[in-house]
């Protein structure tokens, strides 16, 4: 019975992780759409506008 509970807990955690990933992906997509692109930041000022 204990093993079954651990499997169910692992499934629940994986589902939460998957949901969080999808939310982050959607947010990133909306951000890119709103700004019209992706700005890559580097350590050097000459690398900031790609």
Give a written overview of the molecule.
The chain has one helix spanning 2-35. It is elongated, with a radius of gyration of 19 Å. 68% of the residues lie in helices and 0% in strands. 0% of the residues are buried. The protein has one domain. It is built from one helix and no strands.
What would a concise description of this structure say?
This protein has 50 residues and is an all-alpha fold.
How much is the average pLDDT?
83
- Biggest sheet overview: none
Number of strands: 0
Gross geometry: elongated
Poorly predicted runs are none
**For the CA atoms, what is the radius of gyration?**
19 Å
Helix fraction by DSSP (H/I, runs of at least 4)? 55-70%
What portion of residues belong to β-strands? under 5%
List keywords for this structure.
50 residues; mainly alpha
Task: Give the SSE layout.
Blueprint: H1 2-35
